[in-house]
Write a structure and sequence with these properties.
There is one protein chain. This protein is an alpha+beta fold and 637 residues long. The protein has 3 domains: 3-359, no CATH class; 371-484; 487-634, Jelly Rolls, CATH 2.60.120.820. The chain contains 21 helices and 18 strands. Strand 15 and strand 16 (619-621) form a beta hairpin. Helix 2 (29-42) packs across helix 3 (61-70) and helix 5 (107-117) packs parallel to helix 16. The longest helix has 51 residues, at 328-378.
């Protein structure tokens, strides 16, 4: 290695350390779920989140184990996570430097390394496993190009242990190994198998499956419609910064040029291109709810493409003006340096954007930490806490946690899919409920129900002016809570692609369906009010189909407050023998003027729910409303 490369690597090392210290955001809420697993391992409680409950609620066994091992040093787990991320970030920059540079052209390698170190998305992922994931994937490509195939397969196995989506790079490595050697890579597969087998056997024996419960929970969240899907979020995180920094279009231009150039290059870069496409496709097909960290590995690919694009454009310019300046090498260096300075300007803009995000991360972490500390100091050690976003609060409270999103509470995952958060109260009966007004649209209706009012009361409010949704409220279960009857979700049609038109005094709207359970007791429909709150009287009719439609229930709801994008609850007297029976409900607002009309979300696809259809003004139409039905059972717990 020559002197200049040593200087370049030293520069990457210094900038990597500085960006880790001054530009990275604090660990996010999800990272603290992994921290709690690592802390429990360190404390001798086992690989668990809630002590005594063997649920794999973290997606990153490898990073969890690394944290628990380094925790033997005596340092706090969150601090160790930042240190590990700093190390893997610097190593990623160095690997990328060697991947993209050569003896005659080191500037592109240096630019690539610095792109990683100043990448705002990566700097927002400190504390979780994604920077390690980037390092492992870059290491696979580096080892493959240098024909160190056993090490490439070992890193591929580590990628699988770090995150399940590592199987994507394993499949690509398998294909490229066959193409390169014209035979099945048995030695590499042996390395992969020997590395993965201990964890697979352990997880089957310990958890019952090597697949994390979070996978099922994330799919349920994605299906609920409450969370943006992968493609939508991906588009937002690429385009939103451009609203303030339009110059980034130039950066994306280089990425596209580099992508085209890399496809025509050697097999290592083709591997990166195919992995990028496969990664996006895989997450789209899974249908999981999106988290920012899922995007992190893609940023490494994007920045490599940009570096190659700069190289391609500068070389193209140098060749075209060669007839004016005889020294091709010098002009290439000048062009490289000019574009390199431009990219550093881009990075500075990103740093500004990242600083704003850092403030958002800090305010959330600060108030959640305060809530967790309050719970630790003011509740019994055996208390059960129910909440959304369990990371900070679960880690600092050291209490049993009921996760209403299902990440560490598998018993309520299917009800997450149905957007029914009340089920967690009925089944798990938390001693305390932490209410963040940010999730008001999920819990507003629950807080107004008679059973909740009779079962819980506010005992504390934790404030922080820097947090947008402050204060956060802590509810405590009353001495004689009312959990005697449980309302369960039966049918859920949550897909939407339009609305049913304006509903007022001259129009009625309804939906037919077949009940799957006895004791039908309530129906909910997802309303749209054109961003208004509408107060009106509602009339509800439930018909049963035998030979003809027969009216069996009729309810009048006076001065009902209808809000935009909120479920409208329509309870009625229990219908005992409802299983397998076809029903149709009709809703009308007899006194509502046209200028105050509301509407209801629907899907026009008849294949989504096949056992019913919309009724508009008594006439059957194609499609289905966005609706849910509920049935009642006695709570034996």
């Amino acid at each position: 290695m020559n002197k200049q490369k040593i200087i370049d690597i030293f520069l990457i090392l210094v900038i990597g350390i500085l960006s880790s210290i001054f530009l990275s955001t604090p660990p996010d809420d999800d990272a603290f779920i992994t921290f709690r697993y690592a802390q429990n391992i360190l404390n001798g409680n086992g690989f668990v989140y809630n002590i005594g409950e063997r649920v794999l609620g973290t997606t990153t066994p490898l990073f969890t184990i690394l944290l628990s091992i380094t925790g033997l040093s005596g340092f706090e787990i969150p601090d160790l996570s930042i240190a590990l991320c700093s190390i893997f970030l610097v190593l990623s920059g160095i690997i990328l430097y060697f991947l993209t540079s050569n003896d005659s052209n080191r500037l592109i390698g240096l630019a690539s390394g610095l792109f990683i170190l100043l990448n705002p998305w990566i700097l927002q992922s400190f504390g979780n496993e994604m920077i390690l994931h980037v390092f492992l994937h870059l290491g696979i490509i580096q080892f493959f190009l240098n024909k160190k195939f056993s090490l490439a397969w070992f890193f591929a196995a580590l990628a699988v242990l770090n995150r399940g989506d590592g199987v994507i790079i394993c499949g690509i490595l398998f294909i490229f190994s066959i193409i390169k050697s014209k035979k099945i890579p048995w030695k590499g597969l042996t390395v992969l198998t020997l590395t993965l087998t201990p964890w697979i056997l352990f997880s089957i024996i310990y958890f019952g499956s090597p697949l994390p419960s979070t996978l099922e929970a994330k799919i349920a969240q994605g299906n609920s419609g409450l969370f943006a899907d992968f493609i939508t979020y991906l588009k937002n995180y690429i385009t939103i910064p451009q609203q303030n920094y339009p110059i980034l279009y130039v950066f994306y231009f280089f990425s596209i040029i580099g992508l085209i150039a890399l496809v025509k290059s050697h097999s290592g870069w083709k591997m990166l291109f195919i992995w990028t496409f496969s990664y996006i496709t895989g997450y789209k097909l899974l249908g999981v709810s999106f988290a920012l960290r899922y995007f992190i590995p893609l940023t490494a690919a994007i920045f490599i493409f940009a570096a190659k694009g700069i190289d391609y454009v500068s070389t193209f310019i140098a060749i075209r003006i060669q007839k004016f300046i005889n020294n091709k090498f010098e002009i290439t260096k000048i062009v490289h340096l000019s574009i390199f300075i431009l990219i550093l300007l881009f990075s500075e803009l990103y740093v500004t954007y990242n600083t704003n995000k850092k403030q958002d991360f800090s305010s959330r972490g600060k108030i959640y930490t305060s809530v967790g500390t309050w719970l630790k100091e003011n509740t019994e050690k055996e208390s059960k806490i129910g909440l959304i976003e369990i990371g900070f609060i679960g880690y600092h409270s050291e209490r049993y946690v009921i996760d209403f999103c299902g990440l560490v509470t598998p018993s309520i995952i299917q009800n997450v899919k149905a957007k029914d958060f009340s089920y967690g109260f009925f089944v798990e009966k938390p001693d305390y409920f932490v209410y963040n007004p940010e999730f008001d649209c999920w819990f507003k209706d629950i807080l107004k129900t008679e059973w909740f009012i009779n079962s819980y009361e506010v005992i504390a409010s934790i404030c922080d002016e820097s947090f947008r949704w402050s204060p956060i409220y802590v509810y405590e279960k009353k001495e004689n809570p009312r959990f005697d009857l449980v309302k369960m979700v039966d049918i859920t049609q949550y897909k939407t692609d339009g609305i049913c038109g304006r509903i007022h005094s001259k129009k009625t709207i309804g939906q037919s369906f077949i009940s799957n359970e006895d004791n039908l007791c309530s129906i909910q429909i997802l309303m749209a009010t054109y961003k208004k709150t509408i107060h009106c009287n509602l009339e509800f009719f439930l018909f049963e189909q035998k030979e003809n439609w027969k009216l069996i229930r009729e309810e009048i709801f006076k001065k009902y407050a209808i809000e935009d994008n909120i479920w409208l609850s329509l309870p009625f007297q229990v219908v005992n023998k409802s299983k397998g029976v076809k029903y149709c409900f009709i809703l009308r607002a007899p006194e509502l003027p046209e200028d105050q009309a509301f509407t209801i979300w629907l899907t026009s696809d008849d294949n989504i729910y096949k056992n019913g259809s919309i009724y508009l003004n008594g006439k059957e139409e194609n499609g289905d409303l966005c609706f849910r039905t509920f049935y009642q059972i006695a709570n034996k717990n």
